[in-house]
Amino acid sequence: MAFLHGVRNIVRTVGLGELKHVSVENDKIEFDPEKRNNISIIVRGHVMQGSITLLRDDQESKLLKINNKIYVTDDYIRVTITPVYTDNQLVLTIEGPREFTRVRHETEVIFPRDLSALESFSIECENANIDAYALPTLFFDRYQINNTNGNIDSRLLKGTNIILRTTNGNITGSYQPLAKFVAESSNGTIDSSVTSAVQPSSVELRTTNGTIKGFYRMAKNFTAKTTNGAVTVQGHLKENEQVDANLASTNGVVSLTMSKIYQGRFQLETTWGSTSVSELFDVNFETYNRTLKSGVKGTAPNGNNNIKLSTMNGAARLEFN
Prior knowledge:
InterPro entries: Toastrack_DUF4097 (IPR025164). Residues 100-314 form the DUF4097 domain. This is 11001_t:CDS:1. The chain has no helices and 27 strands. By secondary structure, the chain is mostly beta strands. It has a domain at 1-113.
């Protein structure tokens, strides 16, 4: 067990009072990511609060750096930072006390600017905001965040599979998945964009007590579901691409603006609200009433294409643009 030592400075954090910056063993580590390209960061301790920021190194270096600043109220509080190395993996665990006290961590993961790819990168934490900035040329085969009581934000994050989960927090930013994108929250908003050059196989957006909105490259399987919130999606589809889209809410408006080139089936339904569909020349209705509209769009509709919008206490709107 490593003990805190070497008080350096004092800061005041909102809601936490005065905290002292202290040194902890392994608070700065460096390693070659070409040799260890599977990285996991785990933050434990219910009272730990803080941030994790992913950055590009502005210096010439081939080493990946993980820097931690730890702040506490009293010197006796114990925090450990434990790196465990295997052949191609690093698991870094930051562990704080579980009894009531005040502890804050500020973690920076600094990637070499010439690094082009990592096999996997994951974070598991509580009470932290996670931000990934300035990583447009770095590609993750698998990128996964499991957070509790914190936000997740990224800018032009690229990967094969990108999986983001949080509770009591928002998921924002822009992403370019090759295969799968998952954004799940509870009591939080999902306000993101997917701008992949190729069509992803799956995009899943789910929250409770929050809204879902943004611009999305329509995946072959696209899901956006919430309770007690609106769903507002702008969907981009290229010619000859297939899509099965399901957007739903219980208490909120569900709205999809889809590319005009879409050809396939659609269905909109609500219990206590109205439905509306762009009445273009190639839109043919099979059912047309206030709470239910269904039919086919296109002169040569693809039987595998399907759009379904549903809500209970709100309107359902489909527009082709």
